[in-house]
Design brief:
Mean pLDDT: 87
Order of helices and strands: HHEEHEEEE
Number of strands: 6
Strand content: 35-45%
Number of helices: 3
Strand order of the largest sheet: 1-2-4-5-6-3
CATH superfamily: Hotdog Thioesterase
CATH architecture: Roll
Shape: globular
Number of domains: 1
Helix content: 10-25%
């Protein structure tokens, strides 16, 4: 019986967080068609020179979270554009929850809204990401 074609979200669920996302330490809480949730505890390595969370960490989490919410197609879906508004600073020890909610799943373009909250329930970032279905099959990597 042939395996079902791999999807980006399915590969992340199967193999776990890898690459740059593993480097920053984000954790998968949920991935399902149209929705994804990732979390992160802010550590020293995440801080910018001013002592607050570096925006690149939030941007990375937002792209991954949004991409996983949209990427249940059996094709590679690269990011076309991402916009994230930083609404409040995050500090050492903060616990972040990033949620992605798909807005549109078209024939070619996928769109997803993302929002991040700290442990106090304060909205710290919000944005919009778009992805393109490339129609190239998703490679399936073997896990060690």
């Amino acid at each position: 019986m042939p395996d079902k074609p791999a999807t980006q979200a399915g590969e992340i669920l199967r193999a776990g967080v890898r690459g740059f996302d593993a480097l920053i330490g984000s954790q998968i809480q949920r991935i399902e068609p149209g929705r994804a949730v990732f979390t992160l505890k802010v550590e020293e390595k995440h801080l910018n020179p001013m002592g607050t969370l570096h925006g690149g960490v939030l941007l990375t989490m937002a792209d991954t979270t949004a991409g996983c919410a949209c990427a249940y197609e059996p094709t590679v879906c690269p990011t076309l554009e991402g916009k994230l508004n930083f609404l409040a600073p995050c500090f050492l020890g903060d616990f972040l929850r990033m949620e992605g909610q798909e807005l549109r799943h078209g024939k070619t373009i996928l769109a997803c809204e993302v929002k991040a909250w700290n442990q106090h329930g304060n909205l710290v970032a919000a944005g919009l990401f778009t992805y393109m279905k490339s129609h190239k099959p998703m490679p399936r990597e073997e896990t060690p």
